[in-house]
Amino acid sequence: MGIIDIYTVGYSASFRQAIESIIFHIILNFRLDNFNFDPTENVNLFSSVGDVSANSDILRKTRIYSDVQGAYLIQIFVIRAEFAHFLWFQKKHSAEYTWKTYLAQFEKSADTLSALKHAVLDGISQLDFKDTQPWKDLYKILSDSYDQMNQS
Hints:
Blueprint: E1 4-5, H1 6-9, H2 13-28, E2 59-60, H3 67-93, H4 99-108, H5 110-126, H6 133-151
Parallel strand pairs: 1-2
C-alpha cells in the first residue's frame, strides 16, 4: 500500500472527522489493565521514528488535532491512567483504599508520580492505530481512492 498522502487523496472535513473518531475510540478503549506502573522498565516512545521509510504504511502531512484538542486528548488519557493507578493501589492495599488516600500518596511520594508518568508514556507507546477495524476500513477506502487517482 505504501504512504498515503492525504492531500493527494483529497483531504476533507469528513475524512478528518473519521480519523479523529478512530483516534478517540482507540484512546477511550485502551484497557486500564494495560497501564504499566513499574518505572524500572524502559519506555522508548520514539524507537521507530528513524525507521520510517517510503514503504511505511503511514499517513503523513496532516495535522489532525488543534493544540487545544490534542491537549484534551492527552488529558483524557492521563485521567484514565490515573484512575487505573488508583485501582492498582486499591487492589494492592484493600477495597477501603480511597481516592483521598490516593491523592495523599501523591503528596507524600515522588515515586507515585514517577510510576504514573511511566504508565502514561508506556500506555502511549502501546496505542495501536493500525490493527483496529475502523482504521483498517478507513485505510482500505483511502488506498482504493489513491489507486483510482493514480490510474486516471
